[in-house]
Amino acid sequence: MIKKNSLLRRAQIYLNTKLSESKKNKERWAGLKNKFKGKRVFLIGNGPSLNITPLYLLKDEYTMSFNHFNLFFERLNWIPNFYVCDDLLVGKDMRREINKKIIPRVDYAIFPGLHNSGATFKTFILPKKNVLWYIHKAGSKYPCFYPGFPYTGSRWTVAYIGLEVLVYLGFSEIYLVGTDMDYKIHTTAKVLKGRDIQSTKDDDPNHFDPRYFGKGKKYHQPEAYIIKNFLDSMALANEEISKTNTKVFNATHGGKLETFKRIDFQSLFNHISSEKRETLFNELIKNNVKDLDKKLCFLKNPENKITKESFICSQDKVNEFIKVYIYSHIPYGPYNFKYYFIKRDVV
């Protein structure tokens, strides 16, 4: 039985490798090499710090997102250019979202044609023109950080793959946002097998939305050694990227990722006037923020029951409010250190 399983896995790897090494896929990657030379891009993680980051300022920037970031789409005035999902468990779990809500909206959707487990995303991801496949490689022949697509290294976090992609595309500056790397054990989740877990309620403590890995979602428990591996992989990426013409900065608010040089997110948009910022925010909320300031009540703390009205809260309280009101309201902000929760049925 063991020999039979081994042969099946080898056959699977061979087939998936050939599919990902197709002429068409290689030509697509070749056409993208250094296409964005001289440009800057924002690699967006999914940490809670996103809620205190004015992401509406990224409207005319290049952006890359991962996994369940589509939950944030309704709170944005832009859609990411690049999307990557590398985790087989997560990819299978959200395959409908990826095929129906993400691939049709992004410029490029990127997945492992050959996962390091020997499996492939090709069995559940629809082959669209904007879908690109890569192959996990390892060993001395293929360095850990290998931006030579369709081949890539693989190191614990999808952000590592993202950095490889962006370096290959030729971006001169990469700014990390929402890469908190500050994980807590999900105590209410059900253990499936090993580190594989399934949430029993919408109480994800590690991302910008409690529904991110909410009720019924499957993912991996962020144990201490895994977090260390995440951080080590970023250190390795930084070491390799330093040999290229690409500069990487961490524009995340807080968090534990200290590998890359810190930079203030707001400082990257000093060229945008206060009038332009107000215009961008008005477009986002489809209203006039000054009018909302006059007519909406300001809540200091989340209430036990859902309010029937739109309201405003302070930026530093937003994560508490999101836990209570995310189903009934869409949160917009921060703008002038405030958050605007607009009732969903009036948007």
What does this structure look like?
This protein is α/β, with parallel strands linked by helices and 347 residues long. The protein folds into three domains: 2-183 and 223-268, no CATH class; 185-221, no CATH class; 275-346, no CATH class. It has nine helices and 16 strands. The strands form three sheets. A nine-stranded parallel sheet has the order 6-5-4-3-2-1-7-11-12. Strand 15 and strand 16 (338-343) form a beta hairpin. The termini are far apart.
Topology (SSEs and partners):
Layout: H1 2-20, H2 23-32, E1 40-44, E2 62-66, E3 82-84, H3 88-93, H4 95-102, E4 108-114, E5 131-136, E6 151-152, H5 158-168, E7 173-177, E8 190-193, E9 196-198, E10 218-220, H6 224-241, E11 247-250, E12 261-262, H7 274-285, H8 289-295, E13 297-298, E14 311-314, H9 318-325, E15 329-335, E16 338-343
Parallel strand pairs: 1-2, 1-7, 2-3, 3-4, 4-5, 5-6, 7-11, 11-12, 13-14
Antiparallel strand pairs: 8-9, 9-10, 14-16, 15-16
List keywords for this structure.
single chain; 347 residues; alpha/beta; nine-stranded parallel β-sheet; four-stranded mixed β-sheet; 16 strands; 29% helix; globular
The biggest beta sheet is recorded as: 9 strands, parallel
Mean pLDDT: 87
Q: Helix share of residues? A: 25-40%
Based on helices, strands and strand pairing, what is the structural class? alpha/beta
Q: What integer value in Å does the Rg equal? A: 21 Å
What series of H and E elements makes up the topology?
HHEEEHHEEEHEEEEHEEHHEEHEE
